[in-house]
Amino acid sequence: MAGNANLNAAAKARKDEFYTQLTDIEKELRHYKKHFQGKTVFCNCDDPFESSFFKYFVLNFNRLGLKKLIATCYAGSPIADRRLSLSDVTGGEETKNRPYKAVVTRVYDTTGDGSVDMLDVAELFKSGENELTELEGDGDFRSLECLALLDEADIVVTNPPFSLFREYVATLMEREKKFVIIGPKSALHYKEIFPLIKENKVWVGMTPISTDLHFMSPKSYIEQLIESNRASGYIIDNGEYMTRSPSIWLTNLDIKKRHEELILVKRYRPEDYPRYYNYDGIDVSQTANIPCDYTGMIGVPDTFLDQYNPEQFEIIGMATDVPKTMVHKVVGDEIQYLKDGVCIWSTPYTVTERKAGNSLRINDNGLPGKLPYSRILIRNKHPEPPKEET
Ligand SMILES: C[S@@+](CC[C@H](N)C(=O)[O-])C[C@H]1O[C@@H](n2cnc3c(N)ncnc32)[C@H](O)[C@@H]1O
Asked: What atom in ligand 1 is closest to the CA of residue 19?
């Protein structure tokens, strides 16, 4: 039992060992510049000695017009062996795996070399103009110490532990924080996260959902992936081993693409769009093919969220969804997911006429043998009038 518990804890920690590349942060955050002026940014899962989030904000501190930057990290957080050149700031003391808090209020060229770099940042910590101190507790984002810092912050930006993603987002929502964060792609389907997307409280960031983000990970993890032949778990990027974990950016800060109207060129013709045989709606497997004049319910893939403009479309719900491994049963036109026999999440399911034969088989015991595709159910708020027959 103790052995199993250790294995589970190790597997859980593994899920959290994906360290974000500076280039991916730059690509996303260049769209948010106006939001940062005069604000306090908190990176609450970020070791100031190695986080690219911390590096991004500290080096762009003046360009963004930040008021304050705070970064805290978790005790025992495994590092990706890519320390920033700050290690000597604590007087040669071993900083590895210790929970630190960095508070930055000033950044300038201390060395006189004409630009601001990490040497200047180190110098400003050494001189005490900025603060680098050990936390009292373990740096858990849920600790009172870190929650007090969260209360002080205007915007939270990080890649948090995926194993605690639901709780992490709940904490930010409860405290009404603005955020730009990385999360697992599967979070779109979480019963705690999808309703936030549906209610326009959270949306997908600028980086397209289909982007294959590559992360830095500790050597030991990469070696393990190579040894166990898990080729889909890593990739060689510019000569370096990087790990892969299907991820997306999520935010509640306004971004341009939410106001861009999706240009719809197709008109509805019954022969072009399969209908669901168990639901009053049509299936559209590619967002670009949404018919401009269809007034009813439309099922679209997750990638629709990249182009979702809430003034143009309304999200009605989600039809079937992960985790498909959960115990489920069909009740009317819903699939209910069960835990200890109790329904903990229900969702409509949609089956197209074309695939009715094989995409959802109801077994004798009422359980579906194979689940149909997951679809987001939407409605066009301003459909064009149908074309007059000539
Ligand atoms: C996915 S990694 C990302 C690290 C960093 N934000 C980045 O993007 O490079 C998540 C980090 O959260 C840390 N972590 C795990 N549990 C935590 C907790 N309860 N509170 C704060 N951080 C935690 C992990 O150790 C890990 O360093």
From this structure: 9
Rounded to an integer, what distance in angstroms lies between the CA atom of residue 302 and that of residue 299?
Answer: 10
Query: Residue 360 — pLDDT band, cuts 50, 70, 90?
Result: very low
- Residue 164 DSSP code: G
Per-residue pLDDT reduced to its tens digit, 50-105: 899 999 999 999 999 999 999 999 987 665 445 555 656 765 555 556 789 999 99
pLDDT tens track for 177-192: 999 999 999 999 888 9
CA of 162 to the centre of ligand 1 (A): 8
Please report which helix (H) or strand (E) contains residue 219, including its range.
Answer: helix 219-227
Domain ranges in the chain are 2-257, 260-380
**Sequence-ordered alpha helix ranges (H) in 127-178:** 144-152, 165-174
d(CA 339, CA 357): 29
Largest CA distance in the chain: 83
Tell whether ligand 1 has an atom less than 6 A from the beta carbon of residue 203.
Answer: no
Write out pLDDT tens, residues 221-269.
Answer: 888 889 988 888 999 988 899 999 999 999 999 999 999 999 999 999 9
Q: What is the whole-number distance in angstroms between the Cα of residue 43 and the centre of ligand 1? A: 10
- Give the chain's mean pLDDT: 86
E strands, 87-239, are 100-104, 131-134, 155-158, 178-184, 203-204, 214-215, 234-237
Q: What is the pTM of this model?
A: 0.88
Cα–Cα distance between 205 and 249 in angstroms, integer? 5
Centre of ligand 1 to C-alpha 16, Å, is: 6
Which ligand 1 atom is at minimum distance from the Cα of 160? 10
Collect all residues with Cβ–Cβ distance below 8 Å to 162 and sequence separation of at least 6: 15, 16, 18, 183, 184, 245
Tokens of 329: 């049963």
- Cβ of residue 243 lying under 6 Å from some atom of ligand 1: no
Give all strands of the β-sheet with 178-184 in edge-to-edge order.
Answer: 131-134, 100-104, 68-72, 40-43, 155-158, 178-184, 247-251, 203-204
Regarding the beta carbon of 46 and ligand 1, being less than 6 Å apart is answered yes
Q: Say if residues 122 and 90 touch (Cβ distance below 8 Å).
A: no
What pLDDT shows up at residue 325?
61
Neighbours of 271 (CB within 10 A): 5
SS3 179: strand
